[in-house]
Amino acid sequence: MVMMVVFSVMFLISLIAVASNPSPYFAALGLMIGAGVGCGMLTQFGMTFLSMILFLIYLGGMLVVFAYSAALAAEPYPSAWGSLEVFSYVVGSLMLVVVMWMLLVNDFGAFDEIEGCVMSVRRYVGVSEMYNAGGYMLLVAGWVLLVALLVVLELTRGFGRGCLRAV
Amino acid sequence: MSPYILFVMLSSLGLGTTLTFTSSHWLLAWMGLEINTLAIIPLMTNKHHPRAVEAATKYFLTQAAAAAILLFASIYNAWYSGQWFIQDMSSPVSTLMTLAIAIKLGIAPMHFWLPEVMQGISISTGLILVTWQKLAPLALLMQISHNIKPELLIILGLMSTIIGGWGGLNQTQIRKIMAYSSIAHLGWIISILHFMPALAMINLFIYLIMTITMFMTFNLLNSPTINTLAMNWSKSPILAATSALALLSLGGLPPLTGFMPKWLIIQELTNQELAPTATLLALSALLSLFFYLRLSYSLSLTIMPNTHPQTLNWNMKTTTPLPLSLMMMMTLTMLPITPTIISLF
Amino acid sequence: MTHILFTISTAFMLGLTGLTFHRTHLLSALLCLEGMMLSLFIALAMWSTQNDMMIFSSSPLLLLALSACEAGLGLSLLVATSRTHGSDHLQNLNLLQC
C-alpha cells in the first residue's frame, strides 16, 4: 500500500512538471518519469504485461521521438521550474490537486480498499482475448497505424520552401 | 496529393464515421472520432501554405483534447456504473460528455476554432469539415440526449445561435461567414435535441442540403470574399440568381426550404412551454439573416445599369454540375413536402 | 478505489489545464496531450483489473495504438509548423485571426 501511495504522489508530481509550462526538455523529462511511475503503478496491481507494453512504447518509442523533436525545437534560454513564471504554474497546479482532493476523496480510509495483490500476474489472459475475440478491433487498429504512416508522410513532404528549424 | 492516398484518407473518413455510428461502446466511438481527426488532417494541408498548416494544427489540438475528454468522461462513467453503453449515462458525467462533444462540433462557448480553421482550408475541405465531420459527434449526442439536462442544451443552443449570428456580422470572408452560419444552425439543432430528436434529425438533414448547395456554389464561383461575389453574374447568371435565393433559404425565409425546420422547432418549443426560448431563437435568426441578406445582395442585386470601368470575368461557358442543380432544387422548393419529410424521420 | 480514481482524474485534469492554459511551445502542448493519454491508459488498465473484466484488458493496448498515432500526427504537424512559421511557438499561429 505504501508503494502505491508513493507511486501515486510521484505520478502527480511528474504530471505537474509536464503541465507547468517549462521548456520542452524538462517537460519530456517529467513525462518520462511519469511513464516509469505509471509502469510501477500497473505492476503493483499485477498487470505486468500492460506495464511492459507501456514501458516499451512510452520510453522506448515515443519519448525518444519527443526528445529528438525537443532538440529540433530548441531554444537558447530554457526555463526550468526555478523561474518565476513556471513556478507560478506549479503553484496553480498544486491548488488544482488540492481542489480535486477535496472534491473526490471523501474519507481517508479509502486507501484500504486496495487489495494485497502485489506482484501476482493476473491479467495476461487479456492478450489472448484480444487475438481471439477482438480480431476486428485489431484490424481497425492496424489500419489506423497504416493511415497514420501515410498522414505523417503527407504532412512532412512536399514543402517547396522553409527550413527544418529556425530558432 | 496522390489519388491513392486521397482514396485511403477518404475511406478512413468513412470508416471513422461509420464506426462511431454503429458502436454501442464508448471506446469504439472514441476510436471512430480519432480516425476522423487523423484522416482529415492531410486533406486540410493539401496545399502546403502556412495558413493550411496553422488550421490543421489548431484543428488537431482542439479535436484531440475533446476526444480525450470524451474518453475520460466515459471511463469515469464506467468506474461508477460499471458499464460502457452509450445510451446509459449517468447525469453529471453526461454534462462533461456534452461539453466535449460541443468542442468537437464547435458549439458556442467552444466555437472559436471553427472560423479560423475554416479560413485556412479550401472550400471543398471546408464542406467536409462542416458536414461530414459533424455527423459522428451529433450521432453520439443524439444517443445520450435523453440523459442530458435540457437546461444545458438550451443554454448551449441559445448561445450558439446568438454568437453565430453576431460573429458573422463583421466578416467579409465567405468561409468565415459560412462557419458562423454553421455554428448558428447547430444551435438550432441542439436546442430541440432533448425534446424531440426526430426534429433535430430533420434540421440536420435540411442543414446538410443547404450547406452542400452553398459550398458547391462558392466552389464553382471561386470567390473567397464578398466583393468578388459581385462580379459573378457574368459567369453564371442563373446560378447567381438561384444561389441568392438559396442564401435566403439558409436564413430561413418562408417560401423556401430553410423555413421548415425553424417553423417546426419554434412550434415544438412553444408546445413545451418554452416560449421565451423560442422567441430568442427567432430573434437571433434575424442576426444571421442580416449577413445572408448582405451576401445575396452583393451576389445578385448589384448589377450596374451602365457600362462600368472594371474588367469583367472572362465569359467562358460555365456548366453547372448536376449534383449542384439537384441540391439547389432541394434547397429552394422542399417546403410544400413538409409532411413527407416529417414522416421520413 | 477512490484513491486510484483521484490520482487518475487529477492527472488528467492537470494535463488538460496544462494544454488549455498558456503554452509557449507546440511541443509542450503535445507533451500535455501525451500526459492525458498516459493517465487514460492507466485508468483503463486499472478499471479492467478492479472489475475483473478480463476481456477489457486489451482495451489499453488499443488506446495506446491510437494515442501513438495521435502523437505521430502531432509531431509531424510540429515539423510542418516549424517549416512554415519558422518556429514552434504557439503565438506565431496568428495568421487566421480577424
UniProtKB/TrEMBL annotation, chain A:
UniProt KW keywords: Electron transport, Membrane, Mitochondrion, NAD, Respiratory chain, Signal, Translocase, Transmembrane, Transmembrane helix, Transport, Ubiquinone
InterPro entries in UniProt: ComplexI_Subunit6, NADH_UbQ/plastoQ_OxRdtase_su6, Nuo/plastoQ_OxRdtase_6_NuoJ
Keyword Signal listed: yes
Chief place of localization: mitochondrion
GO cellular component: mitochondrial membrane
Signal peptide positions (record): 1-19
Single Gene Ontology MF annotation: NADH dehydrogenase (ubiquinone) activity
Domain of life: Eukaryota
E.C. code: 7.1.1.2
Subcellular location as annotated: Mitochondrion membrane
Top-rank EC class of the record's enzyme: translocase
Catalytic activity: a ubiquinone + NADH + 5 H(+)(in) = a ubiquinol + NAD(+) + 4 H(+)(out)
Sequence intervals crossing the membrane: 44-74, 86-104, 133-155
Membrane topology of this protein: Multi-pass membrane protein
Function: Core subunit of the mitochondrial membrane respiratory chain NADH dehydrogenase (Complex I) which catalyzes electron transfer from NADH through the respiratory chain, using ubiquinone as an electron acceptor. Essential for the catalytic activity and assembly of complex I.
Family of the protein in this entry: Belongs to the complex I subunit 6 family.
The protein's name: NADH-ubiquinone oxidoreductase chain 6
From TrEMBL, chain B:
Protein name: NADH-ubiquinone oxidoreductase chain 2
Family indicated by similarity: Belongs to the complex I subunit 2 family.
Native source species: Erpetoichthys calabaricus
Catalytic reaction annotation: a ubiquinone + NADH + 5 H(+)(in) = a ubiquinol + NAD(+) + 4 H(+)(out)
GO BP, sorted A to Z: mitochondrial electron transport, NADH to ubiquinone
Lineage: Eukaryota, Metazoa, Chordata, Craniata, Vertebrata
Keywords in alphabetical order: Electron transport, Membrane, Mitochondrion, Mitochondrion inner membrane, NAD, Respiratory chain, Translocase, Transmembrane, Transmembrane helix, Transport, Ubiquinone
Protein EC: 7.1.1.2
Residue ranges occupied by any NADH:quinone oxidoreductase/Mrp antiporter transmembrane domain in the UniProt entry: 23-283
Primary role: Core subunit of the mitochondrial membrane respiratory chain NADH dehydrogenase (Complex I) which catalyzes electron transfer from NADH through the respiratory chain, using ubiquinone as an electron acceptor. Essential for the catalytic activity and assembly of complex I.
Topology with respect to the bilayer: Multi-pass membrane protein
InterPro entries: Complex_I_Subunit_2 (IPR050175), NADH_DH_su2_C (IPR010933), NADH_UbQ_OxRdtase_chain2 (IPR003917), ND/Mrp_TM (IPR001750)
A cellular-component GO term for this protein: mitochondrial inner membrane
Enzyme class: translocase
Iron-sulfur recorded as keyword: no
Transmembrane intervals: 56-76, 96-114, 126-146, 152-170, 177-196, 202-221, 233-254, 274-295, 322-342
GO MF assignments: NADH dehydrogenase (ubiquinone) activity
Domain NADH dehydrogenase subunit 2 C-terminal positions: 289-342
UniProtKB/TrEMBL annotation, chain C:
Subcellular location: Mitochondrion inner membrane; Mitochondrion membrane
Domain of life assignment: Eukaryota
Functional note: Core subunit of the mitochondrial membrane respiratory chain NADH dehydrogenase (Complex I) which catalyzes electron transfer from NADH through the respiratory chain, using ubiquinone as an electron acceptor. Part of the enzyme membrane arm which is embedded in the lipid bilayer and involved in proton translocation.
Pfam families: Oxidored_q2
UniProt-listed Enzyme Commission number(s): 7.1.1.2
Membrane-spanning residues: 28-49, 61-80
Class of enzymatic activity (EC top level): translocase
Any one GO cellular component localisation term in the record: NADH dehydrogenase complex
Keyword terms: Electron transport, Membrane, Mitochondrion, Mitochondrion inner membrane, NAD, Respiratory chain, Translocase, Transmembrane, Transmembrane helix, Transport, Ubiquinone
Record keyword Disulfide bond present: no
Molecular function terms from GO: NADH dehydrogenase (ubiquinone) activity; oxidoreductase activity, acting on NAD(P)H
Record protein name field: NADH-ubiquinone oxidoreductase chain 4L
Family that this chain belongs to: Belongs to the complex I subunit 4L family.
Cited PANTHER family: NADH-UBIQUINONE OXIDOREDUCTASE CHAIN 4L, NADH-UBIQUINONE OXIDOREDUCTASE SUBUNIT ND4L
InterPro entries attached to this UniProt entry: NADH_UbQ_OxRdtase_chain4L/K, NUOK/Mnh_C1-like
Membrane topology qualifier: Multi-pass membrane protein
Source organism (scientific name): Erpetoichthys calabaricus (Rope fish)
Catalyzed reactions: a ubiquinone + NADH + 5 H(+)(in) = a ubiquinol + NAD(+) + 4 H(+)(out)
Main location (coarse class): mitochondrion
GO biological process, one term: ATP synthesis coupled electron transport
